[in-house]
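[User] At your convenience, examine this fold.
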Amino acid sequence: MSLIPWIAFLVLVFCLLALDLGVLNRKVHVIHTAEALKWTVFWISLALLFSVAIYFMYETHWCGIGLHEGANENGSAAVMDYLTGYLIEKALSLDNIAVMAMIFASFGIPLKFQHRVLFWGILGALIFRGIMIALGSALVSSFDWVLWIFGILLIYLAIHSTFGGDDDTDPQDKWITKFLMKHFRYTGKVEGMHFFQRVDGKLFMTPLLVALVVIEVSDVIFAVDSIPAIFGITTDPFIVFTSNIFAILGLRSLYFVLASIIERFAMLKYAIFVILIFVGVKLLIPAGYAGYNWIFDTNYEALHLPNWTSLATVLTCVVGGIIASLIYDKKHPAPVSEPAPEDKDESELPGIEKQD
C-alpha cells in the first residue's frame, strides 16, 4: 500500500487542527453549549463525509489501498467497518468526558481556559493513538494469538469497569499528579492560559499543565480497551486509524456539550458493556480458528459475521443505552454537576502551595 493515503489524511488532520486553534478559536473565550453543539455537528458531518471518500478509495483501490493483507476488498465493507469503529470510539469516549470534567473541577480550571488544555490534550491523544495502532497492527499481522489477548482483555475490562466499582479517585491523588508535585515546582494557581509561570526567577508548573498531563495519561489508559475494540471490527490499519482519529477530533466539542449532564446517561455503561463483550467474543472466534484449529471443527467462513451485523449491534446498543438513560433519569433525576469556576478570582481557586 502506498503512503500517499496516509500522508493525505495527516495533512487533512493538520489543516483542521490549524483552522480550529489558529483561526476559529484564536481568542480565549468560554465555549457555551450552543457553540459546542455546532462544532459537534460539524465534526460528525465531516466524519460521515469521509466515509464517502473511504468507499471510493477502497472501491477503486486508489494508490493500492484495499489490496494489502487484512484490508477490505470493496468499498461497502470498508465503509461498514469505518462507521462501526467510529461509533465504538464515540461510545467509549463518554468515559473520557466524565474523567475530563472531574480533572478540570479538581484543579479549578476555568471554563474559558479548558479549550486550550483540551486542544493540546487531543493533539497528544492523536500521537499516542497513532503509535498504539501502529504497534497493534504490527502485532496482529505477525502473531495470530494476539487476537486472543485482545478478546480476553476486552471481556475482562467490560466486566471490571461495569461491575467492579467506579474509580472516584480525586485526580490530585493519582500517581501521576503525586509524581509531578514531588519532582517539579507547582504554583497551585491558574495563571491565565499559561502552562508555566516564572516566580522569583524560577519556573513553575500551573494547574493547566498538570491537568493536561493527567488527561494524557488517562487517555492512554482508556486506549487499552478502545484500540483492541476496533481491531475486533477490522485489522485494516487505515480504517482503524482514520475512524479513531475522527472520533477523537470531535471529542473536545462533545465535552462542552455533555460535561455538565454526563451523569444523566447512567445506562450507557451497560450498553458499552454489551458492545465490549460482543467485540471480545467476535475477536476470539477468528483467533481460535487461525491459531488453534482444533477448537473449531468447521469452516471459518461459517463463523464470520457480515460487516453490517457489527454496525447494527453497536448502533442498537448505543441508541438503546441513550433511551434507557433518559427513561431512568426521568424517574430518578440526578443533580446537574457544577461547572468549573469561570469568573472567580484566581486566588480563590484550589491549589497546592509552592514548592522550592
Remarks:
- DSSP finds twelve helices and two strands in the chain.
- The chain has one domain: 4-164+223-348.
